[in-house]
Fold:
Amino acid sequence: MRLKSVELAGFKSFVKKTQLQFGSAVTGIVGPNGSGKSNIAEAFRFCLGEQSMKSMRGRRGEDLIWNGSTSSPRAGRASVKLTFDNHDRGLNLDFDEVVIERVVHRDGVNDYLLNNSQVRLRDIAELLSQANIGGTGHHIISQGEADRALLASTRERREMLEDALGLTAYLYKREEAERKMAKTAENMREVASLRRELMPHIKFLAAQVKKIEEAKELRDTLVSAYAEYLKRESVYIAKVGQELADANEVPLAERAALDQRIAGLREELSGKKGGDRDTKELIALEARGRTARERKEAVTRELGRIEGELAAHTRLVAHQEGQVPAAETRAFATQVEQGLSEALSLEGAELTNRIKTLIAIAKDFVGRITALDVPAKEGEELAKRKRVLEKELCDIGNVEERMVVEVAALRRRIESEKDAANEAQRELFEAMARRGELEAQLVGLRAKGEMLARDQAAFKAEFTEAGVLLGREILEYESYRISAAGGEEVGTAEIMEESRTKQEGRRRALERMKIKLEGLGAGGGAEVLKEYQDTTKRDQFLARELADLETSSEKLHALIGNLTDTLETRFVEGIKKINREFDAFFKLMFGGGSATLSVVKEKRLRKGSTLGSLDVRSNLNDDEEDVAVEEGVDIAVNLPHKRLKGLNALSGGERALTSIALIFAMSQVNPPPFLILDETDAALDEANSRRYGDMIENLAKKSQLILITHNRETMSRAGVLYGITMGTDGASKLLSVKFEEALAVAK
Structure:
């Protein structure tokens, strides 16, 4: 990489666009004092990203802009543009020519451009660090800064050496890794905090999901149990209904025939003169029997209805049993206990008022309990009504038995009376007796039918409740396959052979499961499950994120360690090389003696420490939290024929020679693309100027040199000379000066 040119526009005294081409290994810039030569060195600093206004002899950005004169108005901005030949790709850009430009405006805003594209200052700094052009400015020594390396602190001197050794890129990488590591640590804390916030909610949702899963499992069990119950009940009802229909068919037909026969016989007997006393008595008995049977049927129906209502009330009472909330019971007990405790210390009217309050609380609680007793009282009334009907049914049975006895006695009397034994009477008697038997048979069948009707009503109620609770699934109960213990399907015969008490046990089990399902509560299950799944997925994502961050942190920690090791290794090796060159240049400049660089450690207070305002404290322990141990670089010199070893004891000229020796030593070990020296030779005598010139020629083999000088010896080593002059308007101008004319200009 080679520096091709620098272009200034509106920068300090260069009001017009001024361009300097650097086609020679050594370029000299000469001109009288105050002509603006040093502004060129400061232009390099400015373009390469210098942020200190003091190092550019200003206080704010506006001081760098042409401020105007009587003949030329002030500029609104200042710009400096550096152009590099990048055929060797010394800068990591796929361009043969790289142009870096910085612009400062009157309002202090700065723009950085790379090949006319706006970029950040950091982008410029990282790009230049690849070519050993760092931020310490070790490659630009402005006027009066020849001994800057000697005046710097040990830490600043180390930074200059790191910059000169080309370690800036590693430092940038380490700083970037440390920033990323700090950001990663912050992200880890945030992720961990989010997980801690989610954990209670996840636990709550997990408990809800567990209840939902239990409810779902119970619901599935209830669906299966309901299907079996309904299937068995439907089979039973259908089978019993068919059996009753078959059992009623023959008796009903026979009774209809007997009714016709009896009607005919009655008509025949009634036609006889005077009738017959026994016949009339038999008819009266028949009428009384018919009335008794009708009343028996009515009582049986009413009794069946009462039994159904009583069974429903029994289930209701069982469901409400223990329904007074435990919280209310505990609250009542607590109120009474506190009231009684406080009453012990009261007297007179206060005691009376407190007792009245407790009585009111007790009445309210008893009232809530009494409200729960209403269904139980209704059940007692139904049971009482059932007992009355059962007694009436028993009385009707007794009447029927007496009638049977009377009919039998009448039959014997008629048979014994020969004058009344005619064929019609016997037929009528036999028909009526048979019809009585059929009526008794049909009454039993009707009672079974009424029981079947109650079973059907209960079946419909259970089916409706199951549909409301379980949905359309229960509609498929008819296809449910009932399996026995061995796995074979249970048929109708096995269902009919089973005792009804087992089916009633299944119904009670269904009631218990329904109550438990209501207690678990299945409302909003889908929403809770979705929220639980979403929250769990988020927690799992955060867990993976935290694991990734931990892995990144470990990698960054390892990277920082590797970069630190690399920096330390290269710095130690570089110090050794610079030491050799430094000592050689020092001997050359002073005709003997020695100079050495050494790495030293210092204890400094960390930023923000409350221990005090001093930076260095030798009496601090290494393990104190507010103390940081920093490494720096110290310089030790030994002048020939003198016992002076400290830098503070050197004269101005000696300090300049030592600084030049160090600058040249750094440039020899890791040569920068270009080196700008602004009157660093001002304090040299003629002999040292020749040595200085020899070193410049040697250094020019590795770096481009831009020399701002008044020294004739130095000028003689330049291949190209630029002359800077200033007119009456205060603006600097570039002159084409031949080498022969340069000596006259320098006078």
Notes: The longest strand covers residues 594-605. The two ends are 35 Å apart (CA to CA). The longest helix spans residues 168-270. The CA atoms of residues 361 and 415 lie 82 Å apart.
